[in-house]
Amino acid sequence: MTYGVGEQVTVADRAHGGHHRTPSYIKGKTGRIERVHAAFRNPESRAYGGDGLPEVPLYLVSFARSDLWPEAAGDSGHQVYVDVFEHWLEEAK
Amino acid sequence: MSEHDHDHPPITNGEEPAAAERARALEKVLVEKGVLRAEEIRAGIDWLVSRTPADGARLIARAWVDPEFKRRLLTDARAAALELGLDPGPSPVVVALENTETVHHVIVCTLCSCYPRALLGPPPAWYKSLPYRSRAVSDPRGVLAEFGLQIGDDVQLRVLDSTADIRYLVIPRRPPGTDELSEEDLAALVTRDSMIGVAQPAAPAFA
User: Are A80 and B136 in contact (CB under 8 A)?
Assistant: First the structure.
């Protein structure tokens, strides 16, 4: 586990030409590690019949709405929590 | 009409959602290729439709009456479900999130339809719809208002996007005026929608 609860991380802003579980609306966005779940088989390999190994740590990361959609009007003040695999995370920019 | 030489039911317009046709085509191919046996698909569907929100409701009602159980539910919902003899499903981690006076949680899966099926049964159609999946993260207060649920500005709103192996369910707030109710009567107030976070539990029939 590279990251700990409370750390700021940035989601890699890269295209991925196959099945992956990182929604586009968080790519390039910075959030906070809320939970360190466990390590799980990688869905990017499992989707194509692979074994998904090695297992990849999975984190629950929170993002402020104002960071995800800065252009949106009004201050709804909500946060979005997303499960993100470690290979999609980078040190906060 | 196309005229080709393999047999399938006639493709009709608008009779049923395209997804159903796609699912049948996929099922046919998976069976033909030996990836799945028809019996396995039948058993999977059988399991899924046998699940109901009543199981999740039992968890919530127990948590309302037993603070120690609630603590265990918040720590490890999978273990807490097993403790009550409930089937927590195949997900290795189930997380329960508590709604309070100051924090409200709502669950979505923006990528598909991940949902705690073992404890809540099959997800409602709206949960799988594109409008819910996209707007729940960008405008949750608006979405909840359409469900008839007003979340005050002083309440922190957290939207959980289940993108991976974890399954989430919400522990709604216990309704006022329910101090005298039994655990069984409390469970009857815990609706499916309240465990997704788009509604409060039902009000007791008498107060």
Answer: no
User: Is there a single domain that holds both residue B186 and residue B98?
Assistant: yes
In chain B, the number of structural domains is 2
What is the domain range of residue B22?
A: 18-49
- On whether both B167 and B187 belong to a single domain, the answer is yes
Interfacial A residues in 20-79 facing B (CB < 8 Å):
21-23, 25, 35, 37-38, 40, 43, 58, 60, 62, 65, 68-69, 72, 76-79
β-sheet bridge partners, residue A40: A56
Joined together, the tokens standing for residue A83 give 């499960």
ipTM over 0.90: yes
For A82, phi then psi, to 5°, come to -130, 140
The pairing of beta strand B166-171 with beta strand A56-64 = unpaired
Q: Do A23 and B163 touch (CB under 8 A)?
A: yes
Looking at the structure of chain A, the number of domains it has is 1
The CA distance from A21 to A80, in Å, is 15
What pLDDT, in 10s, does the model give residues B163-188?
999 999 999 999 999 999 999 999 99
pTM: 0.89
Is B4 contained in some domain? no
Could you read off the pLDDT of B103-120 as tens digits, one per residue? 999 999 999 999 999 999
In a domain, B96, yes or no: yes
Determine the structural domain holding residue A87 and report its residue range. Answer: 8-91
User: What's the gap in Å between the CA of B161 and the closest CA on chain A?
Assistant: 5
Whether residue B8 is contained in a domain is answered as no
